[in-house]
Amino acid sequence: MASFITPLILLFISAIFLFLHRRSRYRRLRLRLPPGTLGLPFAGETLQLISAYKTDNPEPFIDHRVHRYGPIFTTHLFGEPTVFSADPETNRFILLNEGKLFECSYPGSISNLLGKHSLLLMKGSLHKRMHSLTMSFANSSIIKDHLLVDIDRLIRLNLDSWSDRIFLMEEAKKCDLRDGNGTGVGDSDSMVWYNVSSSITFELTVKQLMSFDPGEWTETLRKEYVLVIEGFFTLPLPLFSTTYRRAIKARTKVAEALTLIVRERRKESAKEEKKNDMLGALLASGNNFSDEEIVDFMLALLVAGYETTSTIMTLAVKFLTETPLALAQLKEEHDQIRAKKSHPEEPLEWTDYKSMAFTQCVVNETLRVANIIGGIFRRAMTDINIKGYTIPKGWRVFASFRAVHLNPDHYKDARTFNPWRWQSNSEATSPGNVYTPFGGGPRLCPGYELARVVLSVFLHRTVTRYRYCTKPKTQKRYPIIVKRREESKPSNQTWKGKEEESEIEIVD
């Protein structure tokens, strides 16, 4: 009897499988999915994507598929079928239909590390309120009246800590970064800049969120954050990924440290005057947020304010070093600003920032070429017809900003760093769907203006203090020689640096 029933069960299962397969095939044909391939079972093309983005040139991953399938294609990333868009019009459509046709949806490796209460994963009215709150701490008025002073002070403080001779490999170890971390900052000469810039941005973000000044606690926290960030673009499988397992462990340490701060502030808020920072605003918002909700929210903001800005600062130095004419023009602009000051350490003012015309060209071009926000993940809330294709309900989509920014159809010599392109009317006024370094729509990065100011002040302080140049690297250990700029203060109280400028030089 059992021998008779077993074949029937197998036949029944096979019939169901065949029915579902045909139904799926019919649905695929009826919906007309974008062309492409789903790659390997489960893994899809995730490993190819991760491998590409851990190199200095991830473009072939996109280029090959766009050439074969067009700017909209089907792939399979992080365990799910995904529609990949390298088309600016489609990207804008996705951004503007947030909460209507699309909702935020990120791979488990990212969402698990950020926490379910992070701003990145919030939806609906809660996201709208918290996004507005975040922007209120990073708008132009706040930066002008309060943050600019802290930004300038922290940058000068970090630069003052430089010794006369810095070895890049040693600085890289201090930073605890490894080649292939996905940031695009893999070479040793960039590591020292990443170490300095990451300290600046992390300390500034901690100050803004929790009113903490730089110290041993902030530096310990920063080192754990580095490990968290390394786990973002890995498969979320702790048993198979050492990087992801290490990131989860670091995330736990960071959450525990932040939880202690939140609990202490809750006790203080009932006794002392409330501090004017993000944590104070969360505690006083009347929403009765739990400790976990506040910790997730702040943890994600620290990641956003720290990783993206520090990396863009590092790459700006790299691009300028490789483009001497741009560096010379930038230096001239900042020397003129500094020449009007009565003292070399006199703080920058808002009018100084607003006068940095060529600097803004450098900032725009760095953001375009570097693509710190390479793109965004969303999920289709219903079947969506676009460009002759259908994105099925429940499918994930990835709108690639990087692919658009580096497309020669939109920018001449798109993969060449050329800040002067932003002085021309054609590219300076390019459509909003073409230039999207901070995303767009309801989820526009709330710290976009702050990031621009930090990078501008950082460039001002470095080009007026040092001269950086590169030479071919022929040794494993690349010393950087840092000589501080000789300063004099003429009798007319107008300070100018001597022509013998400091050097940051990679020595063979």
Description:
- With 508 residues, this protein is an alpha+beta fold.
- The chain has one domain: Cytochrome P450 (Cytochrome p450).
- Helices cover 53% and strands 9% of the residues.
- It has 19 helices and 13 strands.
- It has a five-stranded mixed β-sheet with strand order 1-2-8-5-3. Strands 4-10-13-9 form a four-stranded mixed β-sheet.
- Helix 10 crosses helix 11.
- The radius of gyration is 25 Å and the shape is globular.
- The N and C termini lie far apart (83 Å).
- The C terminus is likely disordered.
**Count of helix runs:** 19
The biggest sheet amounts to: 5 strands, mixed
Could you name the CATH homologous superfamily? Cytochrome P450
Query: Percent range for helical residues?
Result: 40-55%
How many discrete structural domains?
A: 1
- For this structure, what is the CATH class? Mainly Alpha
What would you call the structural class?
alpha+beta
- Overall pLDDT: 77
Dominant shape: globular
Work out the strand percent.
5-15%
Residue runs with pLDDT of under 50 for 5 or more positions:
19-26, 165-194, 471-482, 487-508
